[in-house]
Amino acid sequence: MGASGCCQRLHCLDHQQENSVDASVAPAPPAPAQPASVHDEHHHPQAPLAHLALAALGIIYGDIGTSPLYTLKECFFGTHGVPTTQTNILGILSLVFWSLIFVVSIKYIFFVLRADNKGEGGTFSLLAMLRSRLKNEKRRWAILTILTASGASLLYGDGVITPAISVLSAIEGINMATDAAAHFVVPLTCVILGSLFFFQRHGTAVIGKVFGPVMTVWFATLGVLGVLAIVKQPLVLSALNPIHIITYFSANHLHGTVSLASVVLCITGCEALYADMGHFGRLPIRLTWYLVVLPGLLLNYFGQGAYLLMNPESAGINPFFALAPKGMLYPLVFLATFSTIIASQAMISGVYSLTQQAIQLGFTPRMRIVHTSEMAKGQIYIPTVNWMLMIACLTLVLVFEESTRLAAAYGFAVTASMTITSTIYFQVTRIKWNWPLWQCLALLLLFLLFDSAFLASNIFKVADGGWITICIATVILAAMITWRDGRAFLAKHYELMRLPTDVFLNDLAKYSPQRTSGTAVFMSIHPEGIPHTLLHHLKHNEALHERVLLFSVLSAETPTMAAGERVQLENLGQGFYRVKAYYGFMESPNIPRVLELLGRKGLAIDIYTTSFFLGRETLLPTGTSPMAKWRKHLFIFMARNSWNATSFFKVPPDRVVELGNQVEI
After folding, report:
1. Cβ distance 62 to 339 under 8 Å?
2. Range of the domain at 566
């Protein structure tokens, strides 16, 4: 009788679509500001500095390290190339030199690397740093969110183009030895790229051990080849004088500005460098750049310039491979191919990390994430992303066939994402660090001086192939914003119908429904109120377990959470407990491990005698959501195809009970 009375008391709530546990559609509210620490070993590695520097050399400098393969070639022999006159050669080299010094050495290595979120970098990390400070400024937060999503979308486009152009440029070196190999360049590139993506599921632990040594040999080779050419034509060193930039633009006018779109290829990889900061720390990255990478790049670029000064008539010849003695051409092609594979691997891994962050921060649906190493942080594999990247890369190679044509699509994503990073970095200096406004603006204007010039020059490449990057970024951005807006609408919808916890517990004490032995976990994305799944269960079964956990998994503002601060436990009385589990944006939820942590707090739970109640919404595009009809269908499509909550939260499937309901959006 008591159970029936309680169910009747709650019967009026049957029609309400209270927040269910399906985290694919209902968003987590921003976690409250908290002194959440992180695992020190994750963000401040204790390995010897030399080992960290060697690892950083192999992981984060692959993209920018292989740029000599195509940068000067595109500047002089690409779609918008300039004649190989002395004025143009020295002007282009001066632009390359000062771009590497200012954009990479000063902007990223010296300034941007300071903006770390508990050791982690990247645009999503920057955004997370601002969340608690802007919780009451919804308009500014919305603008920054869209900017961050745009930057992430552009990096996805970069992740598609980088493997294709890098490997294709390396294989094209065979053409220097014989024209008969021209027909094998595209098939061989496709085989290498296909193999690279196929082996992603095995992880990078084994091949990662040789990344550092191979890139060390690569940068040493760059330097040696450059020095051999510079000695023959030391005039090239005069390009260190920035006056040659002025002379270059005076001679080429608008064409000189357009050629900046090719010069920018020398600084690709800056965003990946910043995003991978958490793996090694600032010091190893800075030491490796100044002692190994920068000298190797500059010597090789100046060596290529020296070769062009001595052979200005060598039209169409890749000056990089022209530096090698004939007997060393094939070994150099092999080394270049291996290095571009490393560069591609670094970009692919970066896209995986970017996707993981986007999932945790609510920008994309759940996806299957496989941790390929129990020891190494950050080694993950996302099958959906992997195969989509592979299809896109192979399609680009088959359509464009030549690195020169593909280079036209390259650059826009890089320059646009760099501009977005400068803008968000300005917000961090002003809001997070409280710098004086004049200092923040001065630094921003200095950054934008280069960023805007490079971005403007790439606008001329849109018709030649840059539209591909824009299309990729637009599709991804539309999906991200649609997912975010759909979740926000559902959150507001659920919030209006939330049953307060105290009301429910008072009714429970009054009607005293039957209690059965065991533990029930009702997962809810909201850390307040009573989830619909519990009310639905009580109405139909007229009974509750003797111990009930209201379980919420929340996104923290930090990359990772320490085990001691991951879980918050609150005793609500009458056998009810509220559990809040916080996960950083670089982590994946694991419910069984959270239950182990609860045992340390005095609430011992046997997972194999515990029932997990999860909700599953059926979304219908017939509601009052302000989203356009096509966005509603896109949101529903993504929700239906997101990875199931049972596997995502690592809950034993034989302990799960799913309860469904319909929601109109």
Report:
1. yes
2. 2-26+498-664
